[in-house]
Design brief:
single chain, globular, 388 residues, alpha/beta, 32% helix
């Protein structure tokens, strides 16, 4: 059987593509192939209300497990509540909604040996063919990208008593710092369940899971909470882009459609990938021709536009990762959260204006001036950012 479309990997990006096609173009023969026992992995994906338009928020609403009208941030010298909506999706809900919708059009537990624009070769030797194959198997290493890491471990905790939180805490940096910017991320899903993630922006991920669990236990004790059970644990390392050469990362002649992290589609500073995944899914359902050549060209152009739009964010990342002492880099984010709510909202949505960018870099930097300038200029003389 030849399919109209095969999706290699059924994480967030490819899962949304398949689901959107099922909703709006059910006549297409779409097959999802996933190496893990279940689609969606073991994740929590979140987004700010301003990251998506009203129509996008409406069609993705069945996946949302909880949404809040505001969120909080805490730093040693600044705490703030921002009146901006925030929402989260879990892998469990992803399976319940998308897995049920796709039914037998998902094959899990299938080891993928090779992916080509028109075919997928499984480790079993079976070759599956389609008019197009979209590769959405997550981050791929590339010598043409300079990456930092956002390493985290999170635990969904059942507490013995209500935690008292009304809003999520997306950054609590009032914790001991280490070899990079560290903060705790807290999502209060119910009055007595809470997801607590220990997060580190580091050049390389050197902390073991036991250390991260110990950090979570310490944070929970400091809040005065008592845990009755750990319901779920998730762990991961997200890419944070400092610089790169997109033309070599994804050459025009490549011909392979890509989605999600595989295509470099994520917010360079926060690592959030859901908004890009939603936009790609909306773009694909509108395409008349779902052949590999057309999809590869269009998806590469989509990713390249996103890459160019985020050049300023990569510059900021170099300040966050390369300037000042690692244990002092929290000051960069503390200063950022002293700016206007509208500026912060546009930053998360990837729509910073020229005035926003000037405002972010104006005034006295929170790290030594010379180090800040050197960090911003780093990689520019090479074949990286100046090839855009």
């Amino acid at each position: 059987m030849k399919y109209d479309l095969i999706l290699a990997g059924t994480g967030l990006a490819n899962g949304l593509i398949a689901w959107r096609l099922r909703q709006l173009r059910p006549e297409l023969r779409v097959l999802c192939i996933e190496e893990q026992p279940s689609i969606g992995g073991n994740h929590t994906w979140s987004f700010h209300e301003g990251d998506l338009n009203a129509a996008q928020r409406e069609w993705i609403a069945p996946l949302v497990v909880h949404k809040w009208s505001s969120y909080e941030v805490h730093f040693p010298a600044r705490s703030r509540r921002l009146a901006s909506g925030y929402a989260s999706i879990t892998s469990e809900r992803f399976v319940q909604v998308i897995g049920a919708a796709l039914g037998d059009d998902v094959r899990t537990g299938q080891t993928i040996a090779q992916v080509h624009p028109h075919s997928v070769l499984l480790a079993s030797g079976e070759c599956l063919k389609a008019s197009a194959v979209i590769d959405g198997r997550g981050v791929r290493d590339s010598e043409h990208m300079v990456l930092g890491r956002q390493a985290f471990l999170g635990q969904l905790l059942q507490l013995t008593a209500p935690h008292g939180l009304e809003s999520p805490i997306i950054m609590d940096a009032r914790v001991a710092q280490g070899d990079g910017y560290r903060f705790v991320y807290v999502l209060p899903f119910t009055p007595d369940t809470v997801l607590v993630e220990d997060t580190h922006y580091v050049d390389r991920h050197a902390l073991c899971a036991e250390q991260l669990r110990a950090h979570i236990s310490e944070y929970v004790r400091e809040q005065g909470w008592t845990v009755s059970a750990c319901l779920r644990e998730e762990e991961g390392v997200l890419p944070i882009t400092l610089a790169g050469d997109f033309s070599r990362f994804w050459p025009e002649e490549d011909g392979q459609p890509r989605a999600g992290l595989r295509a470099g589609l994520f917010h360079c500073t926060t690592g959030y990938s859901l908004p890009h995944a939603v936009r790609v899914a909306d773009w694909i359902v509108q395409q008349r021709d779902l052949d590999a050549e057309s999809l590869a060209k269009g998806m590469r152009a989509f990713a390249y536009r996103a890459w160019r739009q985020q050049r300023f964010y990569r510059l900021l990342n170099r300040t966050l990762f390369l300037a000042g002492r690692p244990q002092d880099r929290w000051q960069v984010m503390q200063r950022f959260y002293g700016l206007s709510e509208d500026l912060i909202r546009r930053f998360y949505a990837g729509n910073s204006s020229t005035c926003d960018k000037l405002r972010v870099v104006s005034g006295k930097p929170p790290v030594p001036i010379k180090q800040a300038i050197d960090a911003m200029r780093r990689y520019l003389p090479s074949h990286y950012e100046n090839r855009e």
